[in-house]
Amino acid sequence: MANMLMKAACTAMLLGLLSACGGGGGGEDVAGGSLPAVTPAGTSGPAPKPTATEASRFLIQSSFGPTEADIETLRTSSYANWINAQFALPVGSTALDFLDKRRVEIKAANATQDVSANQFYEYFWRSAVTSPDQLRQRVTFSLSQIFVISFAGADINPRGAASYYDMLSANSFGNFRKLLEDVTLHPMMGIYLTHIANRKEDPATGRTPDENYAREILQLFSIGLFELNTDGTVKKDSAGNPIPSYTSADISNLAKVFTGFSWFNATPSNGTFGGGGRTDASFVTPMIAYPAFHSLSEKRFLGTVIPASTTSDATGDLKIALDTIFNHPNVGPFIGRQLIQRLVTSNPSPAYVGRVASAFNNNGSGVRGDMRAVIRAVLLDTEARTAVPVNDATYGKLREPVLRMTALLRAGSASSKSGNWTLNSTSAATSLSQTPLASPSVFNFYRPGYSPPNTKTGNLGLVAPEMQIVNEVTVAGYLNTMQTTINSGIGSGSGGSDVTLPYAKEMALANNPAALVDHLNNVLTAGSLTTARRQQIIDAVTAVAIPATPTTTLAQIDAALLNRSKLAMFLTVASPDFIIQR
Amino acid sequence: MKALPQSRRQFLAAAGAVGLVAPVATGFGMQLAAFGSAASQSATGYKALVFIFLNGGNDANNTILPTDMDSWNRYWAARNTGADPIALMPVGTAAVAVGATSPLTGRVASLRTPEAWGGVLPFTPKTAQAIPAGTNATTRTFAFHPMLAPLLPVYTQGRLAVIANVGTLIEPITKAQFNAKQKRTPANLFSHNDQQDTWRAGMGEGAQFGWGGRFADLVASGNGSNSLFTAMSPAGNTVFLSGNQVVQYQFSTAAIPAPRINALTTTSLFGSNQGPAKAQEIIRDTTIASNLGADVGTIVGRSIDSAVTLNTAAGGSLVTAIPAPPSYTNPITGLVEANSLSAQLQAVARMIAAAPALGLKRQVFYVAVGGYDTHDNQNADHPNNLSKVANAMATFDATLANIGGVDMRSSVTTFTGSDFSRTYNTNGDGTDHAWGGHHLIMGGAVKGGDMYGQFPTVGNNLGSFNNPDQNGGYHVPTTSVDQYAATLGSWFGVSNTDLAAIFPNLKNFASPNLGFML
């Protein structure tokens, strides 16, 4: 659908109504002649050193937000080398490690208490703001919005969720086939999409296996609703209609594959299948096969047939099913487009999607599903890197509220007094309307195909997923949350907020409002503030008078410098220039 | 036109006389006298539609049940099975004490087993339902889920109706025609998000215009200077409320419905007397060379411009008198918990009470709750869901009965929808995605105490029984969402011409009006 609408927008471009179409439409043309071509994955060429603005823009796409230090590091390197260095960074402290450490602390204070979702949120903010493996962290967060489980849903165990997030992280630079399998067998996905303890059919009563996971693994985690071309455009039949990529029969047959998997137990029994005898390990260990509950019938899906059998082979059947799904031609464009949307732009050109899908299909060494190749393709593509699309009013994306907050905290060198980053849930409409791993449903906080009604974006038939959580109430919630965070911090703590900004850097610049604003423009908005916007902020900041010495104390001067710093910070993160990324 | 009761006139007098403004042109060439036609029925009256959306796909099969012998026996066979049987107990069954053994099932009751809830609650539609093929009863009898008890009096008093087997359709279709692919059907049946939007907007993901918003387009001019409040939701963005001109307007369930942007409410921001003014310029900038940036600026501007008006109206005595949702106890856990739907409906009641002060004549509201995707654990989740719905609707009905001394129930029609119903067969402890389902319509203008549409034959296709209405585990709908919506629209004042334009498939059905509204 979105692609159909893209076409309409491209037609408008041809009519001269737009300067470009979603950053392309023609792919290769986008680079133009005047800008240095960026080396795509798998080709050789000199790697240009990015400018500060270019480095900041890249880090907005590839991390939880630029810091001055990261910008400077990248300026001496290249995008490709930075990505390689990030790939090489070890996985740091895992979420499960963190929760288990917190569990000891919490139980020491009160033996009846245990970790809750809040401790996962602590881990998230701590890692997002402070962890050096920013690319892994950012990709993991993106994957958590495709392979969704949610604390807002059924009984998600906090340690289980931490383990699930670790699993996404461990696979973020791995292979998609293993990611798909690990997602499928994780007990928290089993809980969330209800295929844990799923029993084979009973023809005598008409009881059938739970179809939930079978449906969503296809619709949301791999191939989507309609057959796609490699460039993500929807294939059409001879009558011009989209071709569904699966039928109800595919779902009911695939559901039989996902029977007979349940809780890990060292000595499995019928009782442990139903959840009896669970230990801590059960929540963080892949589900195991319980042969007696796995369907023996024929399973016919997506052109593959697993014949009826007299012996139960849950693991073997699962391998056939996941291989079939993984090798479906839709996976590359379906997943690739969503990763582009999470990291770079809401309406990538078909050519861009096609290049990313090609990297998924073959990493250059004949390997399918290499996530490193996919990530390189997303971030190094001309449509991601060239500055041309910045002049295109349709290019870019809305930054998610969580990413706006991480960007503020990173750019402002925030720290946590407790070390626990106690932001807790930020789901309320009066907060950020978004908490990591707490979307309302498996359909995430927003849909990839959401087209905001009655907007410039919607009128062009373009999509803007993140706009699904922007409305009259949430814009106020966001601005008020940022104002409070900047003023006094965020997160519960004893003796004031737990997470605060130091303002040392900003206060040192605040005697010169232009220098202050230029610094924030560098770290928060990749130099994208217009001349007029820069002046608006400078004017507001200048109106905070610095008391003249020697009639005032140093403390009074510092108070004014602090106010200037906070005001400049607030007006920058309040501006549409920051809220969107281009 | 019916004479207005005196109290009604007083309510409207409080609203102040708002002249009808000439309708604005619409993008679809429907400069219809929509408001005029509404006016002809009730020139100065207030009307509101309130859509309750049950996200996830409500199991209609355990919401409204046919209780004639054949139907019940097939129900029992289909659902009194599996690791955690989800069959409700027959009419008249006494609730079994927790820990005691049910004489009917031989199972020990707990709070989360149907044995503990007692039998389903019988009701009799005024109009006899046709006896479907495969059912040998002389009359069809029905019952509600035990947790719908709070709605029984509303039904008995004639303000609640049931619409049977309604679903997303393009044209009438039978099971045989579906299997032979002889008729068109909506895309992506059984997909949550697509079917939700097909219910709300006639197409799947990517839809931009919903029928609530299209209705609102036609009446917004009658709402005068506060037409921004024509289509409102406390439940997050919904395409249902987006029209060609009318925007979905979000409000909060908190006492202050429009949260203010704090940076703008002070004379100085971080010590800068220019701060608030510059902040306002920056956050509502719509000239930025980015469509998304401008789109955000537009919404921020709307938020700023509307807040004082709405909050002032919400401070009126009619509004502050609206009761908060009553405390709610989960019948399965015995624990007090929030009833989000009731909070939303009471917030809607506050907006309805604020309407006179705002000069509003027609409004469309959307509220929503999740948790209906009961693939498993249905015995714990579904009864609590239905209990919340019943309590919230009954509370809303009672609240509307007295808004500043005026009975507003005939002015407000509340109705339910959901992605789809769920499979008739169990998967052991839950149910999967299906199609046609049964829904509730409530209000003083509803011809209640009755059932509309054709209730399907129920029962799984087992042995020699071939259910003519059920394919696999789902019922093929016999009434379309478009018919359901158009009947509501007709009451709301939308002309037949406009309905035909809004619902292009309506012409495919014999009855564009199902007759459940006065």
Defining traits:
A: 582 residues; mainly alpha; two-stranded antiparallel sheet; 27 helices; 48% helix; B: alpha/beta; 9-stranded mixed sheet; 3-stranded antiparallel sheet; 14 helices; 30% helix; disordered N terminus
What is the structure about, briefly put?
With 582 residues, chain A is mainly alpha-helical. Helices cover 48% and strands 3% of the residues of chain A.
- Residue stretches of chain A low in confidence (pLDDT < 50, at least 5 long) are 1-44
- Molecular shape of chain B: globular
Q: Mean of residue pLDDT of chain A?
A: 92
| Topology order of chain B in helix (H) and strand (E) letters | HHEEHEEHEHHHEEHHHEEHEHEEEEEEHH
Continuous helix count of chain B? 14
Order of the strands making up the biggest sheet of chain A = 1-2
Assembly status: heterodimer
| Beta fraction of chain B | 5-15%
Query: Percentage of helical residues of chain B?
Result: 25-40%
Number of helices of chain A: 27
